[in-house]
Design a protein that fits this description.
Length: about 140
Amino acid sequence: MEVIANTNRIMAALIKDGISRRIIFSGKFTMHTPDFSIKEVSKYRATIMKKTGLTDGQFDGVMAKLMSKIEVADENAIPPQIFREAAKIMDPIDEAGTPFIALSLTLGKIPIWTEDRHFKAQNAVKTFTTKELARILWPQDGK
């Protein structure tokens, strides 16, 4: 199954060796994210390092491992008409979500994995929360 990882899921996996990291490393999903997401993570690098106590080298190591499991899409490769369509869907709700909707539409409406409630306000693309993906991966756990 293919999914698009929202920035908040990548940051959660950086911050804690928890469920988000387990999902990314499960090998059960082909993960994608727009390059916008990587720029956002970089913007919060110092905050994440302070929160976690990671050194520069440790941060880079965890980030590299995570990104070895996530395909980063160049937003410039998204056709302009699709980006405009995504902007019509998401800009009135939350502009930061537009690159994720655009990538989803480009890749055939694959779902977005997010904890951002703004995505639930649109109905063009399916979304999954962490708990929903965990249920797919580990149905016996009842998470």
